[in-house]
Specification:
Blueprint lengths: L3 E9 L7 H23 L4 H13 L20 E7 L4 E8 L5 H11 L4 E3 H10 L13 H14 L26 E6 L5 E7 L20 E4 L3 E7 L1 H6 L2 H12 L3 H16 L3 E6 L5 E5 L3 E8 L5 E5 L5
Helix pairs in contact: 1-2, 2-3, 3-4, 7-8
The structure holds aspartic acid.
């Protein structure tokens, strides 16, 4: 196999039957993001660029909980986390708690390429992103009615006061249904030179406390890549993914126990995460480009394609891959 890419648009539940047009929209959006990454790899581009571009496409699509379409914290804000890792040299970059960077994954890449650091948070991350030419937007740019309604519902259930609509948000409008999943996005790839990379971006989880950081910007938890071993991007309740160092743990099982990425993902998601009561899943790719997805929720939006093969997208847990 020369090149290969796997992407995800988040793991989660979906209590009701998903309306057919919504399911079709998710499949089309996954396919579009997959095509963006595949085109780069097919032209001989780097795995790192392919994962960034695929994630960027999903950040711009309000169907997903990353970039535009991000969920709201309990205080009614869209706060973003993202990370990227280059398996060739195990370089990594991440941002957390950012509010004005249109594509948080581009800022994570800037942290990796342009600083001595791995993780920048809040104002410092935004300043770096701006200085490095990342597109900056007003917080209201990320607003979607559907995610706002999700917050209202979540806070009403808890009996907590609903914060005022964010400054600059459009007037209340009918909300189109969105997957009640979590919608974090991610990508893992192997390029024709054999290098691996992983990237993840999220708006976090609905109604979390101000200052909460999940697994997505934590290298080793939500994202990990190491040439010759594997690359992983996760989605799910981040606290479990941090406690289990899931992305690194899957790669460690491959490296130290000789498991395939598929068997390693099964051991960690199917057994350990489940035993802890955690929910979510991962996409992973092995050194020769074998791409897998393992999750314990009803839905995980996902897609994969490799050189010369047909693209596949899937949504539900009873679909192959
Ligand atoms: N893992 C993300 C977080 O905890 C959310 C998700 O993937 O649904 O922030």
């Amino acid at each position: 196999m020369t090149w290969a890419i796997v992407i995800h648009g988040g793991a989660g539940g979906y209590a009701r039957a998903m309306p057919a047009d919504l399911e079709a929209a998710y499949r089309a959006a996954l396919r579009a993001a997959l095509d963006v990454g595949a085109a780069i790899l097919n032209d001989g581009g780097a795995a790192l660029d392919a994962v960034q571009a695929a994630v960027c496409a999903m950040e711009d699509d309000p169907l997903f909980n990353a970039g535009r379409g991000a969920v709201f914290t309990a205080e009614g804000e869209n706060v973003h986390d993202a990370s990227v890792m280059d398996g060739a040299q195990r370089r990594a970059g991440a941002v957390a708690g950012v509010r004005r960077i249109r594509n948080p994954i581009a800022a994570a890449r800037a942290v990796m390429d342009r600083t001595r650091h791995v993780l920048l948070v809040g104002d410092g991350a935004e300043r770096l992103a701006e200085a490095e030419g990342c597109a900056m937007v007003e917080p209201a740019w990320f607003f979607t009615e559907t995610r706002w309604r999700d917050l209202e519902k979540a806070l009403a259930k808890r009996g907590t006061a609903i914060p005022p609509r964010p400054a600059g948000a459009p007037a209340p409008a009918p909300a189109s249904p969105l997957a009640e999943g979590k919608g974090t996005v991610g990508a893992v790839a192997r390029d024709s030179a054999g290098h691996l990379a992983a990237a993840t971006s999220t708006g976090g989880q609905t109604g979390v406390a101000m200052g909460r950081v999940g697994d997505s910007p934590i290298i080793g938890a939500g994202t990990y890549a190491e040439d010759g071993v594997g690359a992983v991007s996760a989605s799910g309740t981040g606290e479990y993914f941090i406690r289990l160092s899931i992305a690194r743990r899957i790669c460690a099982l491959v490296e130290l126990s000789g498991l395939s990425v598929e068997a390693a993902a099964e051991a960690v998601i199917g057994k350990e995460l489940a035993a802890m009561g955690g929910d979510g899943g991962v996409i992973a790719i092995g050194p020769s480009g074998e791409g897998v997805c393992r999750f314990n929720t009803r839905v995980m939006f996902r897609g994969r394609v490799s050189a010369g093969g047909a693209a596949q997208v899937a949504v539900f847990n009873d679909e192959a891959f």
